[in-house]
Amino acid sequence: xxxxxxxxxxxxxxxxxxxxxxxxxxxxxxxxxxxxxxxxxxxxxxxxxxxxxxxxxxxxxxxxxxxxxxxxxxxxxxxxxxxxxxxxxxxxxxxxxxxxxxxxxxxxxxxxxxxxxxx
Length: 119
Prior knowledge:
With about 120 residues, the chain is an all-beta fold. Helix content is about 0%, strand content about 55%. It has strands at about 1-5, 10, 15-25, 30-40, 45-50, 55-60, 65-70, 75-80, 90-100, 105-110, 115. A hairpin with a 4-residue loop joins strand 7 (about 65-70) and strand 8 (about 75-80).
């Protein structure tokens, strides 16, 4: 099982980035996908999520209207489009796959990609 994030980097405030998370080793289309982030000295927080078929998305209030999650199940990839970036968006961004099975769940994490918003 592997989740590999890419697309991070340094961007100026107001700029945009698109993160990708490429999945392998599991049935991607069965899993809900989420993006999390963790800034230095802070807890990891949920940025947003998308259902397995892509029909439902949810976002943290802090990114609503600026970030968009999408997925391509044919490519086993989930995306995070980030617009109007702010310095407070600086963090390591992680993707997570989760699938509820009975009373438990399977979940997998990527290794993260750094996003730095600075002038």
